[in-house]
């Protein structure tokens, strides 16, 4: 939702970046398989609950209910937070969010901040901002730490370093953390990161986390991790910050339970994350801040179709199932969040105007989604919005009107297709291939019939 | 206008039709909740000890302390060799923490722990190994039931813990022991 | 029944054998088949590109071809085009006449399963087939329960085909993953489309089936190009061809 794109992502059309990703086919297969394994684990976890589809429906309804009463719930949330001794801040965009965070940290002379995974802070580009202000930011989720050390943005919202091979992580850790050269065993590397990050937790001046759910009637935030990094952070230094989009609100604990039941199952196939922590106030002598961020969300709520993308609970299930994401990688989307949900929430600011077309509209994502975000419908809608704004990629702006007229004319269609069929029949493939573009580059051209179906019908069934 | 006010104003014109909050009437699976709990605890890499009660646990802890392990207990009737320290950071060398859970959830192997029983909030995370102690009659079927029974008073912290900390961030290989405890043993009393 | 055929442009121009098999099988089942004149494109290439203005003319022309046509059902042997026609007719024409056309639209498998089931097949089909469950057919027309969805399962495609004597039906790995055709996606995103198509073609070939059989001609055309490029020992057939061969 921010217009300030990370330079590591860059702005080239999706198809170009995907084509480059696809050049190493063995790696594409490896990437696709790793993510498909998550989809399979998700299927098994979902199938183990007879009430799975009911939970999806409840998740969708409770999120829609909350989104349509968001002002009410946000105010209720704030009031309850204040009663619990939690300080609440409001930020209209990423810039204001970053300034608020910095102000809180500066007031306590914070030199080192430990941070657990938060797609919102990625969206706001918080790390570079704080670093420019002289504050050291340590990402503590293992995957996040890996990509932070590698100087890369996340390529997936749940498994941010999924694009890296263990040998590459081994080389990186050897250089940055002094692990043995050539060591690539995930257990060894994870233990090395544990030792390294433990020191960071113990020496941090403040901790920051994202928020999975914010419970309006309790004034509490729920933070889910498997690694325990959010809680190691938030519960050691005396200053804790939690950033949340306005869409993270749920009315009550009952609502949170529904989403907690589907979140991890849909993300990784686990019945629940290892830690689902409920913070309803700071620790003794501690200080707890919550920053509520808009950054384009209220604008999305003005569009009936786009609004539904705010039902998302960031499980990453749509990325894992997406056949295009798996074969084009997380860096081809020109947005911090890749895959179907990345297109849904990021297309407005995509200056390449190409990410809504990085999709076959197969619809798998919409069926996988635990809150029934109609992702294919939203992506289709983005194409329409782009077309209405005159922002079409791949030469569509010039050729689509021609196609429109051509397809609407039986005479033109019949004449030219007759020529095309003849050409396909009589000319050798080697002559046709250069003219057939992307089709013939990867596929054999169709075997052309001698006449159209209509000609056959009129000849054989005509009166 | 404050950012709060401008956000609240923008929220007055949401394009989606108003929708009622649904009723959460999900049927619980009530057959043998302890067995379900054990299966799911194993799935999340935890281990359940159903027999022996407090005595067996204390005996085990005595062995550990005899080996020089640093054990802290916040569980009534269980004694370790370390007291709750003045600061959270002083827990950094704790090998074992023994903490009472308020209730357990059959469908996912999770146990609810409230900060009243933690000393410092970081205790169940910073310890190298975690022992959670739960009463058999506190095992509920699912999260819908659990969420209505958890204690989370004003200003408090609580957490559902399902297994030891873990990660699969390197090539999807599951590694138990990320930043939190490296093992979880659950004692049913 | 009196059936009006909706033959999408791709079938008309490039895959007439699919149209012919559809006519023949419906006639063998005792239906009267007509082909309303003036059929054009359903508008899908344009609307799926976001270009609704450009789609309007051809969509309305196609709709007009069916308005007032006396028939019991309008049957189309292409799921994706049928879905697009339904949606686009609805988008551009809210009249009762348009709704009357929409209400009569059926994809061929859907028609043979829901409306006029086949009493019996006369001939065997002595081959193993690998079913190509294309996306729009299953996720927008409910021809089969998609793999993502839990709970009770239906599969109209298999239900229709399994009554054919001697037929053996199998499925490729990741059986309902998209084949990568996606209309203009095949050209706009050539590399990813090709990789998806290659993976799907190989998955079908790995079943050892002689034919990959589906209900969506565009996916089949794409897979056919992939199978021949990869020199895989498998060919594509449209479901109408298999049913026609068994009647």
Written description of the protein model:
Chain B: This is Lactate dehydrogenase. Chain B: Pfam families: LUD_dom. Chain B: Residues 89-189 form the LUD domain. Chain B: It comes from Shewanella colwelliana. Chain B: InterPro entries: FTHF_cligase-like_sf (IPR024185), LUD_dom (IPR003741), NagB/RpiA_transferase-like (IPR037171). The complex is a heterotrimer of chains A (463), B (189) and C (247). Chain A is of the alpha/beta class and 463 residues long. Among the domains of chain A are: 51-298, NagB/RpiA/CoA transferase-like (Rossmann fold, 3-Layer(aba) Sandwich); 410-461, no CATH class. Chain A contains 24 helices and ten strands. In chain A, a hairpin with a 4-residue loop joins strand 5 (213-215) and strand 6. The longest helix of chain A has 23 residues, at 25-47. Residues 1-8 of chain A have low confidence and may be disordered. Helix content of chain B is 22%, strand content 22%. Chain B has five helices and eleven strands, in the order ααβαββββαββαββββ. Chain B has helices at 3-10, 33-43, 53-66, 123-126, 143-147, and strands at residues 47-49, 71-73, 96-100, 103-105, 110-114, 129-134, 139-140, 157-161, 166-167, 175-176, 183-188. The radius of gyration of chain B is 20 Å and the shape is globular. Chain C is an alpha/beta fold and 247 residues long. Chain C folds into two domains: 2-115, Rossmann fold; 128-245. Chain C has helices at residues 9-14, 16-28, 44-47, 52-66, 79-92, 96-104, 108-115, 135-139, 156-161, 185-188, 190-206, 217-229, 239-245, and strands at 2-5, 32-34, 73-76, 105-107, 128-132, 168-170, 211-214, 235-238. In chain C, strands 2-1-3-4 form a four-stranded parallel β-sheet, sandwiched between helices. A four-stranded parallel β-sheet of chain C has the order 6-5-7-8. In chain C, helix 2 packs across helix 13 (239-245). The longest helix of chain C is centred in the last third of the chain and has 17 residues, at 190-206. Chain C is globular, with a radius of gyration of 17 Å. The model of chain C has no long low-confidence stretch (mean pLDDT 96). Classes of the chains: A alpha/beta (463), B alpha/beta (189), C alpha/beta (247). Chains in contact: A-B, A-C.
């Amino acid at each position: 939702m921010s217009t300030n794109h990370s330079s590591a992502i860059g702005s080239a059309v999706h198809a170009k970046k995907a084509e480059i990703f696809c050049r190493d086919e063995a790696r594409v297969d490896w990437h696709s398989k790793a993510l498909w394994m998550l989809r399979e684990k998700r299927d098994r976890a979902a199938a183990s609950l007879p009430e799975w589809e009911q939970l999806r429906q409840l998740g969708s309804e409770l999120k829609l209910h909350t989104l349509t009463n968001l002002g009410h719930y946000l105010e209720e949330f704030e009031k309850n937070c204040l009663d619990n001794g939690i300080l609440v801040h409001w930020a209209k965009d990423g810039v204001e969010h970053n300034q608020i965070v910095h102000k809180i940290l500066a007031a306590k002379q914070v030199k080192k901040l430990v941070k657990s995974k938060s797609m919102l802070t990625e969206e706001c580009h918080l790390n570079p901002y704080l670093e420019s202000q002289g504050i050291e930011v340590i990402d503590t989720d293992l995957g996040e730490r890996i990509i932070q050390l590698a100087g890369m943005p996340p390529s997936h919202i749940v498994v941010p370093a999924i694009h890296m091979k263990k040998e590459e992580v081994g080389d990186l850790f050897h250089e940055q953390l002094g692990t043995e050269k050539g060591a690539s065993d995930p257990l060894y590397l994870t233990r090395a990161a544990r030792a390294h990050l433990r020191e960071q937790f113990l020496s941090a001046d403040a901790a920051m986390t994202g928020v999975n759910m914010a419970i309006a009637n309790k004034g509490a935030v729920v933070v889910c991790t498997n690694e325990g990094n959010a809680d190691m952070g938030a519960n050691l230094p005396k200053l804790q910050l939690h950033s949340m989009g306005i869409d993270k609100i749920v009315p009550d604990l009952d609502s949170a339970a529904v989403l907690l039941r589907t979140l991890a199952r849909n993300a990784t196939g686990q019945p629940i994350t290892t830690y689902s922590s409920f913070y309803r106030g700071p620790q003794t002598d501690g200080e707890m801040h919550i920053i509520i961020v808009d950054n384009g969300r209220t604008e999305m709520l003005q569009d009936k179709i786009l609004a539904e993308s705010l039902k998302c609970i960031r499980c990453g299930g749509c990325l894992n199932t997406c056949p295009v994401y798996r074969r084009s990688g997380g860096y081809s989307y020109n947005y911090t969040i890749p895959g179907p949900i990345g297109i849904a929430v990021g297309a407005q600011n995509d200056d390449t105007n190409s990410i809504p077309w990085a999709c076959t509209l197969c619809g798998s994502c919409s069926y996988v989604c635990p809150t029934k975000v109609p992702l294919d419908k939203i992506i289709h809608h983005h194409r329409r919005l782009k077309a209405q704004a005159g922002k079409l990629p791949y030469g569509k702006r010039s050729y689509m009107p021609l196609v429109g007229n051509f397809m609407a004319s039986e005479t033109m269609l019949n004449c030219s297709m007759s020529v095309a069929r003849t050409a396909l029949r009589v000319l050798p493939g080697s002559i046709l291939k250069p003219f057939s573009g992307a089709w013939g580059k990867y596929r054999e051209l169709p075997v052309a019939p001698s006449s159209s179906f209509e000609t056959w019908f009129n000849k054989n069934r005509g009166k | 206008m404050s950012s709060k006010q401008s956000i609240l104003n923008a929220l007055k014109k949401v394009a989606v039709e108003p929708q009622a909050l649904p009723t959460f009437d999900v049927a619980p699976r009530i057959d043998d909740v302890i067995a379900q709990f054990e299966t799911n605890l194993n799935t999340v890499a935890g281990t359940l000890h159903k027999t022996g009660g407090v005595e067996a646990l204390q005996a085990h802890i005595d062995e550990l302390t005899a080996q020089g392990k640093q054990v802290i207990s916040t569980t009534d009737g269980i004694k370790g060799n370390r007291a709750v320290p003045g600061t959270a950071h002083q827990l950094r060398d704790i090998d074992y923490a023994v903490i009472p859970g308020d209730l357990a959830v059959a469908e996912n192997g999770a146990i609810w722990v409230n900060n009243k029983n933690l000393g410092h909030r970081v205790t169940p995370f910073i310890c190298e190994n975690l022992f959670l102690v739960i009463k058999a009659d506190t095992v509920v079927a699912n999260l819908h039931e659990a969420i209505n029974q958890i204690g989370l008073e004003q200003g408090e912290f609580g957490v559902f813990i399902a297994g030891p900390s873990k990660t699969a961030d390197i090539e999807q290989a599951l590694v138990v022991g990320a930043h939190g405890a490296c093992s979880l043993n659950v004692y049913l009393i | 029944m009196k059936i009006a055929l909706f033959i999408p442009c791709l079938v008309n121009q490039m895959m007439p054998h699919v149209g012919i098999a559809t006519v023949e099988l419906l006639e063998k089942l005792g239906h009267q088949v007509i082909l309303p004149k003036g059929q054009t494109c359903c508008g899908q290439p344009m609307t799926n590109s976001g270009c609704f203005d450009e789609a309007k003319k051809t969509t309305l022309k196609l709709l007009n071809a069916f308005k007032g046509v006396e028939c019991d059902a309008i049957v189309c042997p292409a799921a994706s085009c049928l879905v697009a026609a339904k949606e686009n007719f609805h988008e551009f024409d809210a009249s009762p006449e348009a709704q009357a056309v929409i209400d009569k639209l059926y994809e061929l498998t859907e028609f043979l399963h829901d409306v006029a089931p086949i009493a019996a097949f006369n001939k065997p089909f002595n081959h193993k087939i690998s079913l190509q469950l294309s996306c729009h057919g299953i996720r927008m027309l409910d021809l089969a329960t998609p793999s993502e969805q839990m709970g009770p399962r239906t599969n109209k495609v298999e239900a229709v085909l399994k009554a054919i004597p001697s037929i053996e039906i199998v499925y490729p790995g990741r059986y309902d993953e998209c084949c990568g055709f996606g209309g203009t996606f095949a050209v706009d995103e050539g590399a990813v489309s090709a990789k998806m198509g290659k993976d799907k073609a190989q998955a079908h070939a790995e079943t050892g089936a002689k034919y990959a059989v589906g209900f969506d001609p565009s996916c089949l055309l794409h897979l056919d190009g992939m199978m021949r490029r990869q020199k895989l020992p498998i060919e594509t057939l449209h479901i109408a061809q298999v049913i026609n061969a068994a009647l």
